[in-house]
# Entry
Amino acid sequence: MAARGKFITLEGGEGAGKSTQAHLLADWLTEKGISVAATREPGGTPSAEEIRSLLVTGETGRWDPLTETLLHYAARREHVARLILPTLESGQWIICDRFVDSTTAYQGYGQGVALATIAKLRQTVLGDFKPDLTLILDVEPETRCTRTAGRPGTEDRYERMNEAFHERVRAGFHAIAAAEPGRCVVIRADQAVEAVSAAIRETVSERLNRE
Ligand code: TMP
# Structure
């Protein structure tokens, strides 16, 4: 039987460049001969993508924060049960653009849902399942604003939340990284795309023993 694949998550606030970096990392691992799939949250399966559209569009205040937390976890349950676990069990690696830390940072630190409530929900939905490595891409507020200004599309519900919210989210990611240094690495993402991807490759090589 194939060894279980590694599960890598990319996290961070808006405009950190996660999606670009997720694809560059997937390409690099593929070149190394590793079979890898890239996915995202909220979403990743057809039903979870339906839940995504409820979360990322519309009025900023359209959900009570706990309802919103439950929706993220409902989407996550589908994604983990139907795609992530079976894929890892088959031996393939997964790179996921956002995962549990986004709920802690956005709904917990950002929207004020009790961290203990989110932790209980996580345990109920996922048990002890967690990423092998989490890369937290960190950018200064100025970079976030420049990168998100004029972005096309309607999936901007969180982007439209106020500056104080985004500052709490960023502080939340730093707190998560400080609490779990064995799993999380903060990557400075204000640099050029190639410099960020080089830092990511180095971290993945060190942490997951890939040359
Ligand atoms: P994306 O822009 O990275 O695709 O993510 C969609 C938005 O969803 C992003 O603004 C962050 C937000 N989000 C949460 O608030 N909680 C979560 O648990 C996840 C996965 C995303």
About this structure: The domain at 7-208 is CATH 3.40.50.300 (Rossmann fold).
